[in-house]
């Protein structure tokens, strides 16, 4: 009998294809066998007669007028359980053995029963309050899950049995969780502690991510062969080539012409020197205007080449910064038409249909590119978000250089979650972290009982931060406050006087109302071109205004820019 998984795809082909991809994903943390088992079992319930009748009816292999097995697909869609059988199978084979194997059985079973909906809530119980959701699924009547039936049909079960019968099968899990256990602070070193369970949960989610990405990719590729041909699957332009392109650009800058250029070159060279160090957590503490963008890229590229790392991920808090930074890097690294969209990938809410076609969207699904620019929101979604879309990308955070720009903007309520996630990515997933900012948050001094970074493992890239800040000091604060404040007319006079002296002026006010009022007053009373920016404007409009401001300043024209404080925060890092 020919079993099918989807239209134009056999069941054995799908299970083996997912197993291959899932094994590759899970091998990043030495758990390839778990990945293969998950891939082989995730849809094993589709061997049932009930599902085969449904799928063959839906794709036209069964004739409603001739075949007795034909079913009305609208009545069965989404109602045939084909994910529980694999979970029950692994549970029956492992749970009755050692405590370690029972724990592993829980992990693998949980991934299997959750691969359509997202990780299920194990704390929620039934109406009687006696059985949790996971136990209820495992105890589900095997007639409804078709486990008994498929044992005689599923040829993949022989391969699964050969893997799980190996005496060393549970060792990768034991290695990961033992490492977690040893890294916990005193008071948390027990299997019921909140931190241990948090990290164990991240391990579960990592394996879940490996399965989800493999399943979605294999299914999509069977439906759209053109899309399958465009995937990169980790086969990127080599780090040496990308390094060569960046170093060529640095040479083109020429020799430093002033003190600021000398300091920027010092930052850039310090990043190159630090790139040869072992993987771990790095801080790059550089004031605004210190060339963090290209310097951190230099570190990331050389560090990735030295340690054979898979990808570089930039996590940036504001979408307004991503556009500019990604465009700068794209111009350096994407040197030919064939490179467009395949080296520097953007994933954030400001990407519109006119900028991101189906090819870029395809790569965005699982961050399939060597350099990825995304937001803190997307990073946290990959680690903690509900459902499967964000979780699909989590395994791509392993074996990566992850650069957090403006890390001081990390929401306070997320600090401990963030620290625990970073610790897991560094210790268990082989990643390196770079925390970039002019004002480093004290993530190594928050409550370690809830999760903090290890201060002893954090290495500052710059050799003398205090001296650097002194040398890059470019601002003098002049206190012109008045007891009753400044009126719009007085402020406009001050602004226009400054424009007369220097040619341009940036004004930051507290509210949108103040910004609009001052904008009108300056427009009416002066001859300088005046611009107004606030978060009330749509992103496309703001971009156009910013481009015009830059053009005017390059043309050395009189220019006044009036912004709200909130707008300045969202633009942190952009130089007008």
Task: Describe this protein's structure.
A seven-stranded parallel sheet has the order 5-6-4-7-8-3-9, sandwiched between helices. The chain has a three-stranded parallel sheet with strand order 10-12-11, sandwiched between helices. It has helices at residues 11-26, 32-41, 49-58, 73-76, 84-94, 99-113, 133-138, 142-145, 147-150, 156-164, 171-183, 194-223, 225-230, 239-252, 259-274, 292-307, 319-333, 358-364, 376-384, 415-427, 465-471, 488-502, 512-525, 539-554, 565-570, and strands at residues 4-6, 9-10, 281-285, 311-316, 344-347, 371-375, 400-405, 432-437, 458-460, 504-509, 529-533, 559-564. The chain has 576 residues and is an alpha/beta fold. The termini are far apart. It is elongated and about 90 Å long. Helix 1 crosses helix 12, helix 6 (99-113) crosses helix 12 (194-223) and helix 22 packs across helix 23 (512-525). The protein has three domains: 4-223, Hypothetical protein af1432, CATH 1.10.3210; 239-471, 3-Layer(aba) Sandwich (Rossmann fold); 488-570, P-loop containing nucleotide triphosphate hydrolases (Rossmann fold, 3-Layer(aba) Sandwich), CATH 3.40.50.300. Helix 18 (358-364) links the parallel strand 5 and strand 6 (371-375). The model is unreliable at 572-576 (pLDDT under 50).
């Amino acid at each position: 009998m020919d079993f099918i998984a989807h239209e134009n795809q056999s069941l054995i082909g799908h299970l083996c294809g997912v197993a291959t991809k899932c094994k590759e994903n899970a091998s990043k943390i030495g758990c390839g066998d778990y990945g293969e088992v998950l891939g082989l079992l995730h849809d094993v319930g589709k061997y049932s007669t009930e599902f085969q009748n449904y799928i063959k009816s839906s794709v036209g292999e069964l004739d409603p007028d001739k075949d007795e097995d034909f079913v009305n697909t609208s009545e069965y869609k989404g109602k045939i359980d084909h994910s529980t059988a694999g979970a029950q199978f692994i549970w029956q084979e492992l749970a009755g053995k050692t405590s370690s194997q029972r724990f592993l059985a829980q992990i693998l079973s949980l991934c299997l029963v959750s691969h359509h909906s997202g990780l299920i809530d194990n704390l929620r119980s039934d109406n009687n309050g006696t059985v949790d959701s996971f136990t209820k699924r495992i105890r589900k009547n095997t007639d409804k899950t078709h486990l008994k039936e498929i044992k005689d049909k599923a040829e993949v079960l022989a391969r699964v049995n050969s893997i799980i019968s190996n005496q060393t099968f549970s060792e990768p899990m034991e290695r990961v969780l033992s490492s977690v256990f040893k890294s916990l602070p005193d008071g948390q070193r027990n299997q019921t502690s909140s931190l241990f369970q948090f990290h164990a949960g991240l391990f579960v989610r990592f394996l879940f991510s490996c399965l989800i990405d493999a399943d979605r990719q294999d299914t999509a590729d069977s439906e759209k062969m053109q899309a399958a041909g465009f995937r990169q699957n980790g086969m990127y332009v080599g780090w040496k080539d990308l390094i060569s392109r960046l170093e060529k650009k640095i040479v083109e800058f020429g020799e430093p012409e002033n003190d600021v250029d000398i300091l920027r070159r010092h930052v850039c060279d310090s990043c190159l020197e630090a790139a040869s160090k072992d993987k771990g957590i790095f801080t790059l503490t550089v004031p605004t205007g210190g060339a963090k963008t290209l310097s951190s890229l230099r570190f990331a590229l050389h560090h990735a080449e030295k340690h054979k790392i898979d990808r570089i991920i930039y996590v940036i808090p504001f979408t307004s910064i991503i556009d500019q930074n990604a465009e700068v890097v794209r111009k350096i690294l994407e040197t030919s038409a064939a490179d467009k969209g395949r080296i520097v990938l953007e994933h954030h809410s400001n990407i519109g249909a006119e900028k991101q076609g189906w090819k870029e969207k395809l790569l965005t699904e699982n961050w399939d590119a060597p350099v990825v620019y995304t937001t803190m929101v997307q990073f946290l979604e990959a680690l903690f978000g509900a459902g499967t879309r964000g979780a699909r990308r989590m395994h791509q955070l392993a074996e990566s250089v992850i650069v957090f720009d403006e890390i001081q903007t990390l929401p306070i309520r997320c600090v401990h979650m963030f620290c625990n996630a970073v610790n897991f990515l560094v210790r268990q997933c082989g990643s390196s972290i770079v925390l970039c900012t002019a004002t480093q948050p004290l993530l190594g001094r928050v409550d370690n009982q809830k999760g903090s970074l290890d201060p002893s493992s954090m290495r500052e890239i710059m050799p003398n931060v205090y001296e650097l800040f002194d040398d890059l000091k470019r601002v003098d604060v002049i206190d012109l406050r008045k007891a009753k404040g400044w009126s719009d007319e007085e402020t406009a006079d001050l602004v226009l006087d400054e424009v007369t002296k220097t040619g341009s002026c940036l004004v930051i006010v507290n509210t949108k109302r103040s910004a609009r009022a001052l904008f009108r007053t300056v427009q009416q009373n002066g001859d300088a071109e005046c611009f107004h920016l606030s978060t009330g404007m749509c992103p496309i409009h703001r971009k156009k205004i910013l481009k015009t401001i830059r053009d005017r300043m390059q043309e050395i024209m009189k220019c006044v820019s009036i912004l709200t404080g909130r707008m300045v925060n969202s633009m942190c890092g952009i130089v007008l």
